[in-house]
Amino acid sequence: MSRRFEGRVAVLAGAAAGIGRATALRLLSEGADVMVGDANADAGIIFMNDMAEAGHGEHVDFLRTDVSVEADVIALTDAALKRFGAIDVMFNNAGFGGAIGPLTEMDVDHFDETFAVMVRGVFLGTKHAARAMIAGGSGGSIVNTASIAGLAGGVPPLPYSAAKSAVVSMTKNSAIELAHHRIRVNAVCPGIIFTDLMHRGREAEAEAVIAEI
Hints:
The chain has seven helices and six strands. Strands 3-2-1-4-5-6 form a six-stranded parallel beta sheet, sandwiched between helices. It has helices spanning 18-29, 41-53, 70-84, 108-136, 158-178, 196-199, 203-212, and strands spanning 9-13, 33-38, 60-64, 89-92, 140-145, 183-188. With 213 residues, the chain is of the alpha/beta class. Helix 3 (70-84) packs parallel to helix 4 (108-136) and helix 4 (108-136) runs parallel beside helix 5. The chain is globular.
């Protein structure tokens, strides 16, 4: 495999498991130095142990990060700069299922929590990664995890879909604003991917979803 990320530094928010973990592994295999943030400290310990066993220990670090808290996101980007000297890539991937249930019964605090993680988190990651990239003067790439749920109606739960729609809009607008700094901003819009977060071992539900695709 090519090592086209040799000498590049990537910060991944929400990367101790699932899509983020797979992305971290791919970047490491292609030569990048990787700073991982995740709210799950236990998963972070497991991740770091696995990376050490795979021979990536010198090129990866972990910091427990709540992406909805600006101080945590600042700490994550500062840690990447201190450890690896730059930020070339930012992957805003943190997320969860969010508030669930009928619209008329939904708890407003759960709704706000959904947006805090999946919208404010993307905003904060973009804000502070862009600051570092602008200061570095070499541009960079910011990638946000949206979803097919953000592109069409009828994909429950409502707060999750609305948050992912916001991520799509934020991506388009920040791409325009940051382009003159040579910073590219893109979103990926996955369909259903059977990570632990998705099915939690519920094989029957997984099969039912597959049948609808």
